[in-house]
Amino acid sequence: MKQVIIVRSDLKMGKGKIAAQACHASIGSFKKTDPDKIRRWEIDGSKKVIVSVKSLDELLEIYESVKDSGISYYLVRDAGHTQIPAGTITCLGIGPDEDEKIDKITGDLKLL
After folding, report:
1. Which of 10, 23, 100, 109 has an alpha carbon within 20 to 30 A of 84's alpha carbon?
2. 89, 59 in Cβ contact below 8 A?
3. So where are the chain's domains?
4. Is the pLDDT of residue 57 over 90?
């Protein structure tokens, strides 16, 4: 069991901003996950993997793939209080769910 957070590298966010956006993605997707999957994930160590994409188009392509997969997800739109304009899509949280299911969607992405 794992959770994957996908971050857009083209936005050139600072480290703190990336951390905050990744947390939003993690919690948002977690809240949408079936409680049985959450328990299995927590027992398994609550693994999280942070990967990156180079563009909004790439992120949205993955978003479209995950929407019909049965895996929980959460698309983060920034509030615009600091580094980037309001409404900017920054991250996508996927899972937690079974590694194999998530890997079919994100397995080719590079670690952040």
Report:
1. 109
2. yes
3. 2-111
4. yes
Task: Tally the C-alpha atoms within 13 A of residue 65's C-alpha that lie toward its C-beta.
Answer: 16
Q: How far apart are CA 100 and CA 93, in angstroms?
A: 16
- pTM given for the model: 0.94
Report the distance separating Cα 68 and Cα 5, nearest Å: 18
Contacts (Cβ under 8 Å, ≥6 apart) of 46: 3, 96
Q: Closest Cα partner for 91 from 4, 5, 3?
A: 5
What is the tens place of the pLDDT at every residue in 61-105? 999 999 989 999 999 999 988 889 999 999 999 999 999 999 999
Please give the torsion angle defined by the CA atoms of residues 23, 102, 32 and 64, in that order, rounded to the nearest 10 degrees.
100
Residues in the chain: 112
Q: What's the confidence (pLDDT) of residue 10?
A: 97
Q: How far apart are CA 28 and CA 76, in angstroms?
A: 8
